Amino acid sequence: xxxxxxxxxxxxxxxxxxxxxxxxxxxxxxxxxxxxxxxxxxxxxxxxxxxxxxxxxxxxxxxxxxxxxxxxxxxxxxxxxxxxxxxxxxxxxxxxxxxxxxxxxxxxxxxxxxxxxxxxxxxxxxxxxxxxxxxxxxxxxxxxxxxxxxxxxxxxxxxxxxxxxxxxxxxxxxxxxxxxxxxxxxxxxxx
Length: 191
Ligand SMILES: NC(=O)c1ccc[n+]([C@@H]2O[C@H](COP(=O)([O-])OP(=O)(O)OC[C@H]3O[C@@H](n4cnc5c(N)ncnc54)[C@H](OP(=O)(O)O)[C@@H]3O)[C@@H](O)[C@H]2O)c1
What we know:
By secondary structure, the protein is an alpha/beta fold. It is built from 6 helices and 9 strands; from the N terminus they run βαββαβαβαβββαβα. It has one domain (3-177): Rossmann fold, CATH 3.40.50. The strands form 2 sheets. Strands 2-1-3-4-5-8-9 form a 7-stranded mixed sheet, with helices on both faces. Strands 6-7 form a two-stranded antiparallel sheet. It is globular. Bound molecules: NADP nicotinamide-adenine-dinucleotide phosphate.
């Protein structure tokens, strides 16, 4: 059994908590007002908007040392909906990994709309969570949570692939915002 802490109680935080609970894992959910509460999980999911991540790191950076930290953000410029706010040759995950040198940072869930995590399906397909990271054991631990919760997990490669995952998440968001796909649809993966 894994111990998860999920920072953020919004759409994604709740959907990921439900997957972990379904798989029999322990879940601690902390909201913005739970600053005084220590993080107890070994896997910490940052289910907050990208602009809030720097605050979380400033507040909890030392606490996150030694833990698996999962970045799920899509770091869009939400004013223009036309670019990412991270360097073109980098990613939010790379920025977070640099700020948390003592943590094993993974990129995951950013290519899944919350509705497809909650439903477990994208159209006729089982929802697949793409996981990128440099630590095989960390990826395997998160994949275990995902699959025990009834979804598929695919190792998407090293943390460098976060750049491509964020591009996919960006594209999917623009498609939904322009009503080309629904917020309960989006990209599926056939293995
Ligand atoms: N929604 C999707 O389908 C989707 C898909 C892929 C990726 N994502 C990514 O997932 C992340 C969360 O999205 P969401 O849709 O779940 O957003 P959301 O429903 O707006 O929830 C955001 C949560 O973050 C909390 N929060 C904000 N600042 C915080 C802080 N400093 N410390 C702790 N918690 C804080 C908020 O708490 P309060 O309500 O108390 O402010 C809220 O619980 C974003 O980075 C987004 O890009 C979303």
